[in-house]
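seq as requested:
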Amino acid sequence: MSDADELTAQLRRAGCVFAEEEAAVLRAAASSPAELTMLTERRVAGEPLEHVVGWVLFCGRRIRLEPGVFVPRQRTTLMARLAVARLPAGGTLVELCCGAAAVATVAVASIENVQVWAADCDPVAVRSASLNLQPDRVLLGDLYEPLPAGLRGRVDVLAANAPYVPSEAIALMPREAQGYEAVVALDGGRDGLQVLRRVLDGAADWLSPAGSLLVEAGSDQLSQLAEHAGRQNLHATIHTDEDVAGIVVELRRR
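struct tokens:
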């Protein structure tokens, strides 16, 4: 058996569904046989591949991230595409609960002269987002709290991939999530909507008159989220993409 085949077999024994693809990524990331062994050991132990190699492929771009940071899911590419579609040239995007700031990074690469800001309450996430955006545009703080006051009423797209997993369901998540990603990026409170409600509550102060708020939610949370949006005078539109299992709620002022 070749070394490449042995690496694939080792990953498969560890439960990696896409063992051949992961083996190729690990081989490309390693600068020496010793480093390949070290990276493989981390992956076999259960650490997410993206944390092991330091990046995730998202909308065709490498998003850099550190261990412990929420790994951008492919379903969030729907949010990124919608954000780009809603942004005018020279427009303004704010990404809350940004993690590695994948949506903002795609916007910068796609829209001319776009102005982006990203914020997260986790210092490790802020550090990772600063690898992908201008560091002075990445802010540490709770939701809207760290944003410059001058952005009020001027944000064309507000993207927030806030945590929406109910607290009791965290223990049911794959070990790659519950064991290696910050709980603050996963735990949405008793019904999963605790943080999302706060995002909706503050959105109207920051959105431009025609601006859009984009959030993710579970399919069983959509009616509750729409009801709360109505109380904030926001109209909800549901977007889905079955290819990536994406669900995005777009909210605009009525």
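The radius of gyration is 19 Å.
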